[in-house]
Amino acid sequence: MTFKATSEKIDIDKVRGLARLEGKALELKEKRDRELEAIIRCKDNRVLLVMGPCSSDNEEAVLEYARRLAQLQEEVKERIFIVMRVYTAKPRTNGDGYKGLIHQPETDEAPSLINGINAVRRLHYRVIKETGLTTADEMLYPENLPLVEDLVSYIAVGARSVENQQHRFVASGFSAPAGMKNPTSGNLNVMFNGIYAAQNKQSFLFNNQEVETNGNPLAHVILRGALNEYGRNIPNYYYDNLLETIELYEKMGLENPFIVIDTNHDNSGKQYLEQVRIVRQTLINRDWNEKIKQYVRGFMIESYLEDGRQDEPEIFGKSITDPCLGWNKTEQLVREIYDTLGK
């Protein structure tokens, strides 16, 4: 073994105690969590938007975005329920790019995972406490989930993680919705097998203990597009793609069928402005087909304060990872969704 410990063993209870929800903030989160569960269970017909920066690299910029989003949520709450993306760990398959707040809490300083863990908790806590929004994060590292599970209201299992048994099993023990993305190959069976595993009871080793879970009936589909053998993006939000996904849902008999369309990544080819068109086309498809309307009830949208992306964090509120819609276009899109749903 070549592993070398560079810190003391993390005390999870101590870390959680640094930013723990109490009183009215806890009551608000629990209320919103119940509303979100009702949406996934089709007992509330509002559309779910999981939206926010590609990566939460700057605490003050993220909080400014959260304040604006919270005000917008209040204005559209009749038809739309928003969970804010506060993504703090980024998969990096090539190079040494930015791996997220958990690795590098200060983008101009060296990585510091211990400080990163504290920064992650503080950011989720502040968004909830200061704006009343609840948050989503990607479960890139399953063993880290206990560090934030009391704060996050939604987790996503990414395209490169959905085939991993540990991710599937840990998702089965999460009490809130878990969105499972299709893999980069586009193989829907892989994603559905992940959802099946997450929805069922599991027994496995987790953080040096044998554990059992009850299964997570709120695990569901996120369609994010695919890559072909030549590296070309292949969208999977089109009308026929949706019907194929619904057919697989019905064939497998999974609980609480729910489909979220990821409007960026390989659905847009990371052409961030395409997110607007993808939302519009999906809303049209819902109107054309009652079954699509029944199943497709969510969007994942990447947006921040400024349009596009940058290589270095020079412009406040502009992504340093994937390009995002800026605030003006974000606000216009959310209002357009709201108006369309009212027709």
UniProtKB/TrEMBL annotation:
<feature type="coiled-coil region">
    <location>
        <begin position="18"/>
        <end position="75"/>
    </location>
</feature>
<protein>
    <recommendedName>
        <fullName>Phospho-2-dehydro-3-deoxyheptonate aldolase</fullName>
        <ecNumber>2.5.1.54</ecNumber>
    </recommendedName>
</protein>
<keyword id="KW-0808">Transferase</keyword>
<comment type="pathway">
    <text>Metabolic intermediate biosynthesis; chorismate biosynthesis; chorismate from D-erythrose 4-phosphate and phosphoenolpyruvate: step 1/7.</text>
</comment>
<dbReference type="InterPro" id="IPR006219">
    <property type="entry name" value="DAHP_synth_1"/>
</dbReference>
<comment type="function">
    <text>Stereospecific condensation of phosphoenolpyruvate (PEP) and D-erythrose-4-phosphate (E4P) giving rise to 3-deoxy-D-arabino-heptulosonate-7-phosphate (DAHP).</text>
</comment>
<keyword id="KW-0028">Amino-acid biosynthesis</keyword>
<keyword id="KW-0175">Coiled coil</keyword>
<keyword id="KW-0057">Aromatic amino acid biosynthesis</keyword>
<dbReference type="GO" id="GO:0008652">
    <property type="term" value="P:amino acid biosynthetic process"/>
</dbReference>
<feature type="domain" description="DAHP synthetase I/KDSA">
    <location>
        <begin position="38"/>
        <end position="333"/>
    </location>
</feature>
<comment type="similarity">
    <text>Belongs to the class-I DAHP synthase family.</text>
</comment>
<dbReference type="GO" id="GO:0005737">
    <property type="term" value="C:cytoplasm"/>
</dbReference>
<dbReference type="GO" id="GO:0003849">
    <property type="term" value="F:3-deoxy-7-phosphoheptulonate synthase activity"/>
</dbReference>
<dbReference type="GO" id="GO:0009423">
    <property type="term" value="P:chorismate biosynthetic process"/>
</dbReference>
<dbReference type="Pfam" id="PF00793">
    <property type="entry name" value="DAHP_synth_1"/>
</dbReference>
<dbReference type="InterPro" id="IPR006218">
    <property type="entry name" value="DAHP1/KDSA"/>
</dbReference>
<dbReference type="InterPro" id="IPR013785">
    <property type="entry name" value="Aldolase_TIM"/>
</dbReference>
<dbReference type="GO" id="GO:0009073">
    <property type="term" value="P:aromatic amino acid family biosynthetic process"/>
</dbReference>
